[in-house]
Design a protein that fits this description.
By secondary structure, the chain is α+β, with helices and mostly antiparallel strands. The chain contains seven helices and 13 strands. A hairpin with a 4-residue loop joins β9 (156-159) and β10.
């Protein structure tokens, strides 16, 4: 069991996710696309690189993602704004085919800034040779780094005008597209008006799993820098201690259910008040 905790830097609201990564598909599924390149590379190499079809079911691995909102020094509120259990790890190619043929992903696929921002390109309609940008997300050429580490890699041809990246030798795909990885997650929690408060129980877990970090409190759950400012954690924290990881997920699930119950009650009351 592992929990990957990170800061959703593009979403500063502690009570709602205001970006498209992660993307709430529905009450059951969250799609996680081009964010946390290092983490996606790590999981690609561990789980996906040697699969024949670009898809692996990891539902039995108990891998969880927890995102907290981004903050600044004047805004000290920090909450958990989403949590999900990774069910499948996919290449963007495989995700494109799954999501473009399943109606539940239709809205996500049609977004101008869709988080599934890459469309596969084939030679003669059969052999995968690269990707084309199909969305405005990361369109300032960051999309290239979403799948490869080195934009100057001699093994690829990058056409910025047509927004394509083509492999010169398709057989080298798995050694070049090391970030070609996205996730389908079970929707445990997704803030849409109320984030999960970080209480003392959650703080104690973060203190235990980060024994070398000082100044851990509600805004600084990843500790503080030498100058006393909040550590914004550009990467992620991996919680591998099974007992602490399990305890954290249990707390999040319990708090998520409480928030969902209150939201359902409010919705029911609102409907009952209408003629």
């Amino acid at each position: 069991m592992k929990v990957f905790a990170y800061v959703v830097g593009a979403s500063h609201n502690p009570n709602a996710v205001e970006c498209v990564v992660p993307y709430r598909v529905n009450d059951d599924i969250i799609f996680f696309g081009p964010c946390k390149r290092g983490l996606r590379k790590e999981l690609y190499e561990q789980y996906l690189k040697n699969t024949p079809n670009g898809e692996v079911d990891v539902s039995s691995e108990n891998l969880y993602l927890i995102g907290v909102n981004g903050i600044n020094e004047t805004e000290r509120r920090r909450k958990i704004i989403w949590a999900g259990k990774i069910l499948k790890i996919l290449t963007f190619e495989r995700a494109y085919h799954i999501c473009s043929s399943d109606k539940q992903f239709e809205e996500m696929m049609q977004l101008q800034n869709s988080p599934l921002h890459l469309e596969p390109i084939y030679d003669d309609g059969k052999t995968f040779i690269g990707y084309k940008l199909r969305s405005t997300i990361h369109e300032d050429d960051d999309w290239i780094s979403d799948v490869i580490e080195n934009k100057n890699d001699p093994n690829v041809e990058i056409d910025l005008k047509n927004k394509t990246i083509i492999l010169k030798n398709s057989s080298k795909r798995k050694d070049i597209f090391l970030r070609d990885c996205c996730f389908l997650c079970e929707n445990i929690f997704f803030a849409r008006g109320k984030g999960i408060d970080i209480d003392e129980n959650i703080l104690n877990i973060f203190r235990k799993v980060q024994p070398n970090k000082s100044g851990i409190d509600i805004p600084a759950i990843f500790g503080r820098r030498k100058d006393g400012k909040v550590n914004s954690l550009r990467g992620w924290l991996t919680i591998e201690e099974c007992a602490e990881a399990k305890k954290l997920i249990e707390i999040v699930i319990k708090k998520a259910k409480s928030i969902h119950t209150r939201e359902s009650l409010k919705e029911n009351i609102s409907h009952q008040g209408k003629c």
